Amino acid sequence: MDSNSKTVYFTIDFHLVVREKPLLYNIYINSSTVKGKDHYVKIVRPGEVLNDEDIEGFKKYQRIHVLESERGLYLKSLAEDENIESIDKVSVIKDSAVKHLDDIFNPGKEFNTEILGEALDGCHDSMKAMVDVIKDYDINSLKKLIGDLSFHDFYTYDHSINVSMYSVLIYKQLKPKASEADLVAIGLGGLLHDLGKTKISTEILNKTGNLTDEEFAEIKKHPELGVELFREANPEFPGLKKESIEKVIVEHHENI
Ligand SMILES: [Fe+2]
User: Fold this and answer.
1) Domain residue spans of the chain
2) N or C: which end of the chain has fewer CB within 10 A?
3) How far apart, in whole angstroms, are the C-alpha atoms of residue 245 and residue 229?
4) Spacing, Cα 222 to ligand 1 middle (Å)
5) In the sheet that 40-44 helps form, which strands lie side by side, from edge to edge?
């Protein structure tokens, strides 16, 4: 089995498992104690309903996991759960978004159109859950929420995620009747606005001194390059207006 077809899992918190409602995803434990020889065993299936006692019982396994391919379902049910605090929800959603942004923006990782497509799908799942949680926030409560969230050392990711959240709420103030799909599209535009920077050399991006005219001309291409990349990856995004996402990407440095 090559590394591409390897099944990938992620760890979830015990207190963020949905209770008293049919589960949307499978839960696994790793029954191996030998490092590098993981053996995952399914302990709960979709449709099963868990209570506090069940989840307390899982703690003997130390950690519980969900399939990476079911991350979208996990985020969806997390976002919809009324018993979980918004800060906990947004923190998990943000970690997911960081993971997908890292697949896109980390210059040390392999990058191609297929990888971008998968990362975009992950961003879509994250943004759907994010909009579900923050759509009724006002700007001041969002500001507080962002202040309460833990921050990573990766400026680009935190910046992109904050831009996406503010974009959603500013758009909602401008268009109070905007559909959830429109808010998700705007949020994705915010999350991906600097996509084209992946095509600019890191020497230019990380240069601390003044840029030469040529370097500045190169940087100025990133909004156009971002849209090109987005079109090449051609994500499905059912129900979303992809033109809105492209518009945010291509116009994000315009100044009226
Ligand atoms: Fe930019």
Assistant:
1) 1-73, 85-251
2) C
3) 12
4) 7
5) 9-12, 64-67, 27-30, 40-44
pLDDT digits (tens, 9 = 90+) for 74-127: 999 999 999 899 999 999 999 999 999 999 999 899 999 999 999 999 999 999
242 alpha carbon – ligand 1 mean position (Å):
19
Task: Identify the residue whose tokens are 């800060």.
Answer: 87
Of the candidates 206, 194, 183, which has an alpha carbon nearest to the alpha carbon of residue 251? 194
Name the 3-class secondary structure at 10. strand
Which residue's structure tokens are 């918190």?
Answer: 13
For residue 4, the model assigns a pLDDT of 44
Pairwise CA distance, residues 244 & 249, whole Å: 9
**Contact indicator for 234, 117 with CB cutoff of 8 Å:** yes
Taking a 5 Å cut-off on Cβ, the residues next to ion ligand 1 are 194
Average pLDDT rounded to a whole number, residues 219-246: 96
- 164, two tokens: 């996406």
Which residues, 6 or more positions from 174, have their beta carbon under 8 angstroms from its beta carbon? none
- Cβ–Cβ < 8 Å for 42, 27: yes
Q: By the 8 A CB rule, do 245 and 189 touch?
A: yes
Quick check: 94 and 149 in contact, CB under 8 A? yes
Q: What is the DSSP letter of 49?
A: B
Is 85-251 CATH 3.40.47.10? no
Residues facing residue 90 across a β-bridge: none
SS3 74: helix
Cα distance between residue 226 and residue 203, in whole Å: 18
Report CA(252)–ligand 1 centroid distance (Å).
6
Please state, in angstroms and rounded to a whole number, the distance separating the CA atoms of residues 43 and 114: 32
